[in-house]
């Protein structure tokens, strides 16, 4: 890995000092010596932000950064720490409140490169914004959530409360499955549970969880996808839904090139692993947010994915079920988890490709529990002129230059 020492020069007073900092700012500064490939750091002209999402004049200038180890890097937007495997790496960063009140973590770099065999995993409670002069992404940037493991940056923001998926209905002999989380696409409904009238009169069934509701317009801020809902409760126990995918925006002043992978996938719903309780599956998490902003965006033989996770399978006291798969990195749907034999229903698939809505659990009400609904699609948004070639896969389809 190569870290080039940042230039300790200052913009003119025209740069906006919105953070009360005296360090140089990352703005285009207008014309300098005629070389459009370098930052204007010679003090000619006022600083002008080159992003519609973040005031780049208020961001300290960072170092050129190349993630080139054949291994893994880990960034936490909660702590601000970057690790190369287990070794700390110094970065330049700040936090910026967005117009919706969600605070974003901004990582400032000069030229930013992820080489082919390198993967950057991002987790944390804040969405990630990378601000750079030029970006070359040949490896993998992973802002996904993974079932039972890590949660992507800025997953499940506060706005999800108004569009949340519903938990499955309660029953001591077979609960309903949780609804799938939503973002651009709605989630899927969870399956019903417990049709054994002797066990739970008078309704004879536990309701399936309601699907999460989709947004009506693309977000104007950087936010992640919404969580899938839990199963119903039996014996004071429930099964978790999958976390929504995280959020990442990459901003480049000049060019942004992607030949690798950028992923913000939702996690699969969990399942009943006990043979003494009959619990429904958790709903799959919705896909997250991938944003690319630059005058020129080159995408060649790359995979960009913000797909939803599969719902967990419904369990039964006779045997255990299978969890839903995490959202995929291509345009195939994440599979819902298998239910237990004929007593419970399987979870539904997550969204992928042109299918923005997560799958719903259908079929006859089982005598056991219901599977979880699938997670809906996230957003992939481009601002700039896009040049695409090769076998590029983008799932769901990208939205270009929204207001």
Q: Compute the number of strand runs.
A: 20
List the secondary-structure elements in sequence, H or E: EEEEEEEEEEEEEEEEEEEE
Q: Class by helix and strand content?
A: mainly beta
Strand-residue fraction? 15-25%
Identify the overall geometry: elongated
Provide a count of the helices: 0
Low-confidence stretches: 1-25, 29-44
Q: What's the rounded overall pLDDT mean?
A: 88
- The helicity comes to under 10%
Radius of gyration (Å): 23 Å
Distance between the termini: 38 Å
Summed up, the domain count is 2
Largest sheet: 12 strands, mixed
What does this structure look like?
Helix content is 0%, strand content 24%. It is an all-beta fold and 403 residues long. It has two domains: 2-142, no CATH class; 143-403, no CATH class. Strands 1, 2, 6, 7, 8, 10, 11, 13, 14, 16, 18 and 20 form a twelve-stranded mixed sheet that branches. An eight-stranded mixed sheet has the order 5-4-3-9-12-15-17-19, with no helix packed on it. It is elongated and about 75 Å long. The two termini are 38 Å apart.
